[in-house]
Amino acid sequence: MAIVLGIETSCDETGVAIVDGERRVLAQSLFSQEDEHKLYGGVVPEIAARAHLLRLDRLIERTMAEAGLDYAGLDAVAVTAGPGLIGGLMVGIVTAKAICLATGLPLVAVNHLEAHALTARLTHGLAFPYTLLLVSGGHCQLQLVEGVGRYTRLGSTIDDAVGEAFDKVAKMLGLGHPGGPLVEAAAQGGDPHRFRLPRPLYAQPHCNFSFSGLKTAVRQVILAADAVDDAFVADLCASFEAAVADCLADRTARALQRQAGTAAARQLVVAGGVAANRHIRARLQELAVAHGAGLVIPPPALCGDNGVMVAWAGIERLALGLTDGLDVAARPRWPLDPEAEPLGGAGVKA
Ligand code: KG4
Ligand code: ZN
């Protein structure tokens, strides 16, 4: 049975984990750089790369010790090779290559989006195919997942990613960074009907998303406000969350309808940091029931970036003999479905 070390450094989380082929997490460490970036209201790529560099060695050492393993006990090293911030990706890749060079272990270059996409197979033992809604800070897309490396894009954002919209709204309201959990907390008890916000691309025949107009609408509401008190913030966050949930549910319903009668229409998976949002989870649960589809959302701790998902993607790829040479390069852009035509905005990145 294979045991794989996974390394994640594509954004602002330094994640390391060891996972085995029986879907067991033997050890994991996660260091979030929130404090480093807070001051700037967003992730600063150079600071992120430096922070990964300062911590990664020790995190790996600690995780190996926690699992009670030495390198001879591993079968491969998996590392996120893209998409993501180039500096951070390079820190992870160089570290993984060094371990492989010194130990002779095979290297598995993992697509970060694929790591999110396959997490449900680790947590729930899910079989292919399924429909995936991937909602994170850098991405918002719907994919038909038929196997490892077998993706067909059903839709993607044409401008901002959904997590990015949460982060910008939090910034506009002075809530802090990262914004998603803060907007969710602020929305508690708020009135989701107080502000009439747009639902971009609602009821369109395709499955694409757009969030920049919604973001601008939130800005207009703030600019027009007489007073930005706690009740205003709660109501605006609740109204924004409801608009996002409506858009995600509408586009996902369209994706399931388009695939009606296929096995993929009967299984929905939601992944990525925004999948931690309770309101969105509940909304998608209703949608899945209405469409007679099963719904799998990994536990919140595995929705955001982490090393476990990379180690698991490594297990999956290794089982298929999909290892990589030590000349593999970081890929800031790396779409899951390379055949899909590029869209605008964050859609270009993925
Ligand atoms: O998957 P992830 O950890 O990193 C990327 O690959 O981008 O996603 C991070 C994003 C951030 O934009 C963050 O604000 C958002 O996920 N997020 C949330 C919640 N928790 C994290 N958005 C809404 N509600 C949440 N509870
Ligand atoms: Zn991610």
Short summary:
The chain has helices spanning 34-38, 45-67, 86-103, 112-124, 162-172, 179-187, 212-224, 230-258, 278-290, 300-303, 307-319, 346-349; strands at residues 3-8, 13-20, 25-32, 76-82, 107-111, 130-135, 140-147, 150-156, 267-271, 294-296. It is α/β, with parallel strands linked by helices and 350 residues long. The strands form two sheets. Strands 3-2-1-4-5 form a five-stranded mixed sheet, with helices on both faces.
Q: What this model shows, in words?
A:
There is one protein chain. With 350 residues, the chain is an alpha/beta fold. It has two domains: 3-117 and 304-319, Nucleotidyltransferase, domain 5, CATH 3.30.420.40; 129-301, Nucleotidyltransferase, domain 5, CATH 3.30.420.40. 44% of the residues lie in helices and 18% in strands. It is built from twelve helices and ten strands. Helix 4 (112-124) crosses helix 11 and helix 6 (179-187) crosses helix 8 (230-258). The longest helix is centred in the last third of the chain and has 29 residues, at 230-258. The radius of gyration is 20 Å and the shape is globular. Residues 11, 136-138, 163-164, 166-167, 178-181, 184, 272-274, 276-277, 304-305 line the site of 5'-O-[(R)-(carboxyoxy)(hydroxy)phosphoryl]adenosine.
- The secondary-structure class comes to alpha/beta
Q: CATH-wise, what's the superfamily of the largest domain?
A: ATPase, nucleotide binding domain
Tally of discrete structural domains: 2
What are the secondary-structure elements, in order, as H or E?
A: EEEHHEHEHEEEHHHHEHEHHH
Mean pLDDT: 96
Distance between the termini: 33 Å
Counted by DSSP, the helix tally is 12
What binds here, in terms of ligands, is:
5'-O-[(R)-(carboxyoxy)(hydroxy)phosphoryl]adenosine, zinc ion
CATH topology annotation of the largest domain: Nucleotidyltransferase, domain 5
Task: Identify the strand order in the major beta sheet.
Answer: 3-2-1-4-5
Regarding quaternary structure, what we see is: single chain
Tell me the number of strands. 10
CATH architecture of the largest domain: 2-Layer Sandwich
Biggest sheet details: 5 strands, mixed
Task: Bin the helical content.
Answer: 40-55%
Tell me the β content: 15-25%
Low-confidence region ranges = none
What is the CATH class designation of the largest domain? Alpha Beta
What is the 3D shape? globular
Q: What does the radius of gyration come to? A: 20 Å
